Amino acid sequence: MVNIIVEISKYLIILLIIMYTYLCFTIFGYHDMEKKQGMLRRQNVLMFLFQLIAFIILYLETEDIKIAAFYLAQVVLLGAAILLYTHIYPKVSRLVVNNMCMLLCIGLVMLTRLDYETAMKQFVFATAGIVLSLIVPVIIRKVKGLAKLRRIYAIAGMVSLAVVAVLGQVSYGAKLGFSIGGISIQPSELVKIIFVFYVAASLKESIAFKNVVITTMIAALHVLILVVSTDLGAALIIFVVYLVMLYVATRQPLYMLAGLGAGAGASVIGYYLFGHVRTRVNVWRDPFATYDNGGYQVAQSLFAIGTGSWFGMGLCQGSPESIPVRDSDFIFSAIAEELGLIFALCLILIFVSCYIMFLNIAMQLHNQFYKLVALGLGTCYIFQVFLNIGGVIKFIPSTGVTLPLVSYGGSSLLSTLIMFAIIQGLYIVREDEEESIERKKKEQQLRAKKRRIATAKEAGKIADEPQRKKRTVKTGKEREKEKARSKQRIR
């Protein structure tokens, strides 16, 4: 009986995720707010239905009451996140909130399937991140001097990365962070956000050649420290984010070409300097030929994706435990194996939907600093998605970055939630800008109307003056005629 329920459930889950993804894109074609609100509410219903079906399967497979309690806790968390965001910030982007909660939901479901203790830790991080993210939009909206702190951003970023380079613990060949009280901290995740603010503040101040050189040198120091720490995934993200922000701010193709050339040269140097980079490149070229020398991870990932096919094996029916680092770097493979390639493709489209919203917000902002921040965070987010999924499917060499909001990782989860909160703050700023522009237009129209009325009155007075004089003269003559007539009657 359980096998029948599992088999039916996987098709229901695919249907729900297709409907959810369809709404992510069709909502852009509607301007009626009531229709949009209805579509957004349907997304919430689809998310909670997916969560319910997934946890029914998990409970039936494990028969553990803790799974039921954990399900209720997740419903409360995600429901509270949606309600609090929409009530505290009425101008917030509901689509971004929905996608954030949906990605968290998918990640928590898959982590619960892989390892309950890991899922519990992720739940704690998610709770803390959501609470923190509720504060960020008001800071973005109220604090006006963020564009003036570029030196603080530069110093904070470089010092944080330098501390990791000196004191960091080595993990998979890279110094990613350190542990405090049993909690692993990876500063590079938060430094990516600080770096975006630094570049936006610097390029907003000036895009003259001298300032571009200085900004490039600071950006190069960030990348160099990450390379020394052999955290090449984060270094690549910061490098690409800087190139995109620089090109958009200056509109100079030569800067982009020079950056790409420097990046290509640095990649070749990194290949010869770092042994684990050579290993990852060899694994990317042929993971099966290097199966016993680093290729096992990617090979198992490809096996899992191929086994899952379009509709998946069904939740708890696959063997994702055979994939190394399945709860963080390779969680996409586990999802594709058990939930299917259709589900995995819809997951990618949800990521793309978020990125479209980020770009939409960036294009509509009038403040150059905020515009560059939205662009930089959006680029950082989508490029990390590309690096993770590209490495998992052997499209590019594996870089060891996580899948935002889905993979396990406290620092990654917190930084991504903060990133989404900053975008929400910028969305509110954009709404404020639109309201301010509309208010100024109405004020200008009202003043113009008053001027037209005043001008019309003045013109009317001038036009009426000769008429009044004529009427006055005419009235005098009529009086003389009446007097003459009255005298004739008396006679």
Keywords:
491 residues, mainly alpha, three-stranded antiparallel beta sheet, 17 helices, 3 strands, 79% helix, globular
Summarize the structure.
The chain has 491 residues and is mostly helical. It starts with a helix and ends with a helix. It is built from 17 helices and 3 strands.
Q: Strand share of the residues?
A: under 5%
Helical content, roughly? over 70%
Oligomer classification: single chain
Which outline best applies? globular
* Average pLDDT for all residues: 86
Helix/strand-derived category reads: mainly alpha
For the sheet with most strands, the description reads: 3 strands, antiparallel
What is the overall number of helices? Answer: 17
Biggest sheet: strand arrangement: 1-2-3
Total beta strand runs: 3
Order of helices and strands: HHHHHHHEEEHHHHHHHHHH
Give the termini separation: 130 Å
Radius of gyration: 32 Å
Can you give a write-up of this model?
With 491 residues, the chain is mainly alpha-helical. 79% of the residues lie in helices and 3% in strands. The chain is built from 17 helices and three strands. The protein has helices spanning 2-26, 33-62, 65-88, 94-114, 116-133, 136-142, 150-167, 187-205, 209-228, 232-250, 253-273, 275-285, 291-308, 331-339, 341-364, 368-392, 410-490; strands at residues 169-171, 174-180, 183-185. The chain has a three-stranded antiparallel beta sheet with strand order 1-2-3, with helices on one face. Strand 1 (169-171) and strand 2 form a beta hairpin. The N and C termini lie far apart (130 Å).
